[in-house]
Amino acid sequence: MTTDERPGAQAWVPEDPTLPALREAVQGCRGCELYRDATQGVMGDGDPDAALVLLGEQPGDKEDQEGEPFVGPAGRLLDEALEDAGIAPGSVFKTNVVKHFRWSGMRGKRRIHQSPHKAHVTACSPWLEAEFRVLRPTGVVVLGGTAGKAVFGASFKVGETRGRPLPWPDTLPVANPPQWVLPTTHPSAVLRAREERQASYDALVADLRVAASRL
User: Fold this and answer.
1) DSSP state of 48
2) At what angle do helices 73-84 and 197-214 cross, to 10 degrees?
3) What is the mean pLDDT of residues 154-171?
4) Are the C-beta atoms of 120 and 31 separated by less than 8 Å?
5) What is the mean pLDDT of the segment spanning 39-45?
6) Architecture of domain 9-214
7) Percent of the chain with pLDDT over 70
8) pLDDT of 107-149, one tens digit each?
9) CA-CA distance, 133 to 137, in Å (whole number)?
10) Which spans of this chain does the record mark as coiled coil (predicted)?
């Protein structure tokens, strides 16, 4: 059965979700084929009463192994940027639009990240909707293009909207939607920006400061 033929994650999402129940239930998800090559499903983690949710693309190699989001190099950089923006990393909730790691091939002992298809994002959206039902945040920071397209649709481009708080769109209906959503770049893009890394990092911090001012 292909990604498009699968029913999506809804059949595995608990009817009355809690964060612990979601973390347990995602391990049985067969809503798309990504579960086959992943170690485990990785739901979001952080302060369950957080006013701010940080929304990324998918778990990476280290996240897939440890079962926690944003624990690899990009996650460490994100925590530094949060602190520099005046946001305590422990006060937020971090999650991804896709809950299983998509990868292709190896580089040494590390599996090489491969971006999820739109079909994977669509199949996984019930998990994200369930998280929002539980969390009810004030604001969301969208990290990068994949997460941005999941929220705003296929025409989304980070550079056109980054750093600006926007209303939660109708393209991704959730119960009790956040008051605003702010796009910015993914911290992995900062790591890839070799010669301009400091400027990219400073831009990420500046965007997070805008989010901090809205909380």
Assistant:
1) T
2) 60
3) 93
4) no
5) 97
6) 3-Layer(aba) Sandwich (3.40)
7) 97
8) 778 888 899 999 999 999 999 999 999 999 999 999 999 999 9
9) 9
10) none
